[in-house]
Amino acid sequence: MTVQRQERNGSRSGTVFRPGIAFIGLLASLECVSLGGQACLPSKAWAATTERVVVNRFTGLAIEGFDPVAYFVDASPVLGLPRFEASEDGVVWRFRNEGNRASFVAHPDIYGPRFGGYDPIDLARGVTVAGNPRFWAISGQRLYLFGREESRDTFVSDPSRFLADANMRWPALQETLAR
Q1: Average pLDDT, stretch 103-123?
Q2: Which of 75, 73, 105, 78 is nearest to 89 (CA)?
Q3: Phi and psi for 8 in degrees, rounded to 5?
Q4: Per-residue confidence at 56, pLDDT binned at 50, 70, 90?
């Protein structure tokens, strides 16, 4: 605040008790405690990691609309088309063609990203971080998505090291995510 504004409005640097602000602070802290601390989390982080499968909040599409079968068939991320969609467990998936759609519908557990598209490096640390479909790897015939390119590179160097911890922590973390 400029000096002129401070003089015009009175200095706020002193310890002036403001009951309205104190009441709002009290309400906020009570809300935080009543919700078990979740209301205190930054809303962006909380909202981005509340589903069992990573879903774009604006489009409602799983893994940003990328075709999960294309990672196996084309060895690259390919955007799916609106005319080739399938719903699995309440999540909308897009595909590049009808063949990829049919393969996924027949075997969603094989073609869907492991851990619902959450980064296995972060899961191994006990944290759910949404994976980015552009940072991916296939290991043991399973698709893994990563939040950062560095995480992917670390995972590829020794997948079993991270998968042991991620597999151990995933059931408990999965229970904290919405159904």
Answers
A1: 94
A2: 105
A3: -70, -40
A4: confident
